[in-house]
From TrEMBL:
Top-rank taxon, per record: Bacteria
NAD-dependent epimerase/dehydratase domain boundaries: 3-75
Name of the molecule in the record: SDR family oxidoreductase
Species this chain originates from: Paractinoplanes bogorensis
One Pfam family linked to the record: Epimerase
């Protein structure tokens, strides 16, 4: 299958590209810079120059492909306005990719986030949030799943708060970066809130399985660790960096503060049973031992 992928040179995307190539697929990778294009080529993909704002490029890429995987996001968390612009840009891109696939029965896999449900681990049947700082992303994903009624084999792979590889990535990676800058390995609240996690190489396998197998209109959880206490995550970061571990105000994390403070464990039992997905790579706490002082 020829697969058009956005975000194909990032932490998750590079793993997905390698997984697809290893299983006989070919990859067309959106590349917004010369550096990204070179990385895509080095990884075995055919680069297509453009960014998420280049809607004509996205449409042409989708029309050339037998399936689409969307992973790209601006990841600008510098403030509410920047985050809103990133969400708006992604929403237009997601809609454009979907419109190119209507009536084709081709697979369209989008990245999403695991929801948080008070008092328990979320499951694949729970709805994603459509309000709050990233609610626009949830609404876009729901729109993609609705394309199942318009001849698109659409599905969503819901990612946990941290997708990691070699000690970096996701919310834990943000905690590490802030700790380096501030001199404190911090956490919001009392630190007992739980974050789910998955190794990027395990997540890549699930994206491939969704592309190949997922029925239209379905959601799946790429969760290996159901929920690590944020205080435990911060403790490993602090030990590796030789920094004190302390609670900090949620405002430290800008527009993501409310999410950083939320308890949000998630289960992947249904995904593992149904698609035969089995995470095999190191857990988050083990992988954080790779952080270099």
């Amino acid at each position: 299958m020829r697969v058009f992928i956005t975000g194909g040179t990032g932490l998750i995307g590079s793993a997905v590209t390698a997984e697809l190539l290893a299983h006989g697929h070919t990859v067309l990778a959106l590349a917004r810079s010369d550096t990204s294009a070179a990385a895509a080529s080095a990884g075995g993909a055919e680069p297509i120059r453009g960014g998420l704002a280049d809607l004509d490029v996205l449409r042409a890429g989708a029309e050339r492909a037998d399936g689409v995987i969307h992973l790209a996001f601006a990841n600008d968390f510098s403030g509410p306005d920047a985050l809103a612009r990133a969400v708006s840009e992604e929403n237009a891109a997601v809609a454009t990719l979907g419109s190119a696939l209507v009536g084709s029965d081709r697979p369209y896999v989008v990245v999403s986030g695991t929801p948080w449900i008070p008092g328990r681990a979320s499951t694949e049947s729970d709805p994603v949030p459509t309000d709050g700082p990233v609610g626009g992303r949830g609404r876009a994903v729901m729109g993609v799943l609705d394309l199942a009624s318009r001849g698109v084999r659409s599905s969503a792979v819901r990612m946990p708060r941290t997708v990691h590889n070699n000690g970096d990535g996701g919310f834990a990676g943000l905690l590490t970066g802030i700790a380096r800058q501030s001199g404190v390995s911090g956490y919001a609240g009392d630190g007992t809130q739980r974050w789910p996690a998955v190794h990027a190489l395990d997540a890549a396998v699930l994206f491939r399985l969704a592309l190949e197998q997922a029925p239209a209109g379905t959601s799946w959880h790429a969760v290996a660790d159901e929920g690590d206490a944020v205080r435990d995550i911060a403790a490993v970061i602090g030990r590796r960096l030789g920094l004190p571990v302390e609670p900090v105000p949620a405002e430290t994390y800008g527009p993501l503060g409310p999410i950083f403070a939320a308890d949000q464990p998630a289960s992947s039992a249904y995904t593992q049973e149904t698609l035969g997905w089995k995470p095999v790579h190191p857990s988050l706490l083990d992988d954080l031992e790779n952080i270099q002082p």
